[in-house]
């Protein structure tokens, strides 16, 4: 690839990322083939998602732009987990059994040229969430797979506990799983709650989180029934056990906080929800919070006083 060709590759990719950034800033978390096709980007008409197979190389580009992993319904396995190695990097299987199939060559070209790609991750309930920019950093020919690095993907909602990686080698793998799940989990949970805080029904997506009932770092599954859409305020209050949610979907406020005297934020934002039912729940019953998980979390709220 000549320097000019590489620049052109980068320009179109960055235009695609900027478009995705704008969509996500406007609250769009889940994408389909239809709404990522025919985009006017960088003077070209571009499609961002593969149609049939898992790998997509647009005609205008020399290297693959994106690849896709479909959502697998949860059983005991967490979706996408099978290809995360202890080194903390993900693996993406080549197409078919010919490493020189043109789609595999297109992925290899992105690896050799260090070009950023989009990884489309299937979202529970339909559509895809976009993980970008990601890089292919190695090829494992025997296993017919590429090594995927998602370190460059911004992850604003995660607070990383400090851990000595030498002492706990599985931690790196755990972090890699959390990073990968975070975006499709958010997309699925926000859609199920119609982009509204389940406690107060606040609707600004950039101030909403997909909260885990059983925490991700503690083995909680990244599935809708282990999630709640909460605004930043109520997410923090839930994590700090100021607010609890009963298995019957009712809100409780910590006794001390209930008696505290402060301004309108405490009164209207916290205290007045005590004893009320959740304002927003998923329409589909099978998407509603798992009562067993809520109960376990609620017991810890009670223990905290
Ligand atoms: Zn709220």
From TrEMBL:
Residues annotated as domain HNH nuclease: 197-245
Classification via InterPro entries: HNH_nuc
Pfam family, any one: HNH_2
Protein's name in the database: HNH nuclease domain-containing protein
Record organism: Nocardioides imazamoxiresistens
């Amino acid at each position: 690839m000549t320097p000019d060709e590489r620049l052109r590759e980068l320009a179109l990719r960055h235009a695609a990322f900027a478009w995705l950034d704008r969509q996500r800033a406007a609250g769009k978390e889940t994408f389909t083939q239809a709404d990522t096709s025919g985009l006017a980007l960088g003077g070209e008409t571009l499609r961002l998602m593969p149609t049939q197979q898992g790998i997509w190389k647009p005609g205008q580009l020399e290297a693959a732009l994106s690849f896709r992993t479909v959502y697998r319904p949860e059983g005991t396995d967490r979706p996408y987990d099978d290809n995360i190695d202890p080194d903390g990097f993900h693996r993406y299987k080549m197409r078919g059994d010919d490493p020189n199939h043109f789609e595999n060559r297109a992925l290899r070209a992105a690896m050799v040229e260090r070009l950023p790609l989009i990884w489309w991750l299937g979202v529970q309930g339909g559509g895809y969430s976009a993980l970008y920019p990601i890089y292919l950093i190695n090829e494992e020919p025997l296993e017919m797979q590429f090594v995927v690095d998602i370190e460059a993907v911004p992850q604003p909602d995660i607070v990383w506990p400090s851990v000595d990686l030498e002492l706990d080698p599985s931690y790196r793998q755990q972090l890699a799983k959390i990073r990968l799940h975070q975006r499709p989990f958010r997309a699925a949970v926000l859609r199920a709650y119609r982009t509204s805080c389940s406690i107060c029904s606040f609707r600004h997506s950039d101030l909403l989180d997909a909260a885990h009932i059983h925490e991700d770092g503690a083995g909680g599954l990244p599935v809708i029934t282990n999630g709640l859409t909460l605004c930043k305020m109520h997410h923090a209050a839930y994590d700090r056990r100021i607010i609890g949610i009963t298995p019957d979907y009712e809100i409780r406020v910590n006794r001390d906080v209930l008696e505290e005297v402060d301004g309108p934020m405490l009164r209207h934002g916290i205290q007045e929800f005590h004893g009320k039912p959740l304002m927003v729940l998923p329409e589909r019953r099978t998407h509603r919070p798992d009562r067993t998980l809520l109960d376990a979390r609620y017991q810890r709220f009670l223990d905290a006083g």
